Amino acid sequence: MRSLPKRINPLILPEVSPPYDELLSRRRLGKTNLSVKPGQIGTSSATKPENLGMFEYAHLKAPLPKDLKGSEIFSFQLPQQHPEAYFLMRRSKDGYVSATGMFKIAFPWAKHSDEKTEREYLKSRTETSEDEVAGNVWISPDLALEIAKDYGMFEWVRALLDPTEIVQNPASPEKHISPPPKFELPPIDSSAFAPPQPIARRTRRSVSPSKMASPKKSTAGRKPRQT
Fold it and tell me: Which one of 30, 57, 166, 186 counts the least CB within 10 Å of its CB?
């Protein structure tokens, strides 16, 4: 049975999150060049030639707790090195969302085994991209909304997917960045704003977008999995 970490990031819960309109205003477009050393090209999904090069995306910065003691997915030598925020990302190519970023934001105290288990679950879903661009698992907007309910971050992901225009960064107005394709948001379900249901949550006590892993999803549909 699928399980999720018990401890959730309290800073993204509905009762303390910024108003929806403010979340929309915080969105930005970004562009980065994904590259690796010559000897690493083609050694993994993320380093395939087609998954390298210029990468465009929309992002929404979400806060992380100051004390991440016990975290394995945010493991730094000194507490002051812990990031204060992490990015929700949606790639411009096809509008897919980084499930990797969603998990790290929702469960910042997670163990590596937690992340691996959820990654395997997401990779089993047909709405998940087969390739991993920038090292991330990328999922369709519809699946992102479904997972966001499990993670207790529905409003954040909904804001990232909102079809309204994303304001260009005023610091670099001359830089053209392609936005993700428009996504028609489904009608709001009031249950999405309820606290996340315990999906057999475990009882453990427990950066930069360019450093995230991302898979490539073609718009031509997914190849059937071999069994």
Answer: 186
- Residue with the bigger pLDDT between 210 and 61: it is 61
Q: What global pTM score does this model have? A: 0.77
Distance, CA of 159 to CA of 137 (rounded, Å): 20
Distance CA 73, CA 49 (A): 27
Among 153, 160, 199, 157, residue whose Cα is nearest residue 14: 153
99 vs 128: CA distance, rounded Å: 9
Contacts of 103 (CB under 8 A, 6+ apart): 73, 110, 115, 118, 119, 151
| Cα-based distances in Å from 169 to 5, 28, 29, 84, 163 | 35, 6, 7, 21, 18
Amino acid at 137: V
